[in-house]
Design brief:
About 35% of the residues lie in helices and about 30% in strands. It is an alpha/beta fold and about 230 residues long. It has a single domain, classed as 3-Layer(aba) Sandwich (Rossmann fold), CATH 3.40.50.
Length: about 230
């Protein structure tokens, strides 16, 4: 089953009479449980595609179906509801709330989904343990290493059991050892059946995915397929 189905999708920005294509006539299918990397040089359309996949923006034309639902023409409130329920985000800069501790940061998506306080805390504790932070749950971001902060971000992304997890350069701010630890966690999530889409410039990170999609000038240049099942 395709969790992501994109057909003839374009994103066009108008500058007076000039049309600039950030994405042009993309066709893309990602299966449930698939691990996909998105690569390409600066200006290739990676960020625009990520915004489309994350329901942060709408295409100029074409369709995007997420878990069978056409989200291409939803309004801002409807897109916000989809993001909260269906999509988990992991950012290069972590985007944690400095005033909140580990548990509270993980709970944020559940607050917006109106999960009860008791259920939210139980789920957050479970996820903190899963990413190896069970003994750090009362620490705030400034008391954590970069790798630990990214673990919190991963746990937060999983809070509402999303249909897809989008990671934007998840190891970009980390040293090599911390980066490997984060990628091992992502490998584990994939092994559990999660759908992962990772934007990266690093070929070694991309090789962890089953498929790497290479963008160039807003179009898909090629797909690379990998067979990788172990830790590095």
């Amino acid at each position: 089953m395709s969790i992501v189905a994109i057909e003839n999708l374009s994103k066009v920005y108008s500058l007076g009479t000039l049309e600039l294509f950030a994405l042009r006539d993309l066709d893309l299918s990602i299966e449930q449980g698939e691990y996909v990397a998105i690569m390409g040089p600066s200006g290739s359309g990676k960020s625009t595609l990520l915004n489309m996949l994350g329901c942060l923006d709408r295409p100029t034309r074409g369709t995007y179906r997420l878990a069978g639902e056409d989200v291409s023409r939803l309004d801002d409130n409807e897109l916000s509801a989809i993001r909260g329920a269906q999509i988990g985000f992991i950012f290069q800069s972590y985007n944690l709330i400095a005033q909140l501790n580990v548990i509270e940061n993980i709970e944020v998506p559940m607050f917006y989904q109106r999960v009860s306080e008791r259920a939210s805390e139980r789920r957050a504790r479970e996820l903190a343990g899963m990413v190896g932070l069970g003994d750090r749950i009362k620490h705030r971001p400034f008391e954590l290493s970069g790798g630990e902060q990214q673990r919190v971000a991963i746990a937060r992304a999983l809070a509402n059991n999303p249909a897809i997890i989008l990671a934007d350069e998840p190891t970009g701010n980390l040293d090599s050892e911390s980066g490997r630890e984060i990628l091992n966690i992502l490998d584990g999530l994939h092994a559990q059946g999660k759908t992962l889409i990772v934007v990266t410039h690093d070929p070694n990170t991309a090789k962890r995915a089953q498929k790497a999609i290479h963008l160039l000038d807003g179009q898909i240049e090629r797909h690379d397929y990998h067979d990788y099942n172990g830790k590095r």
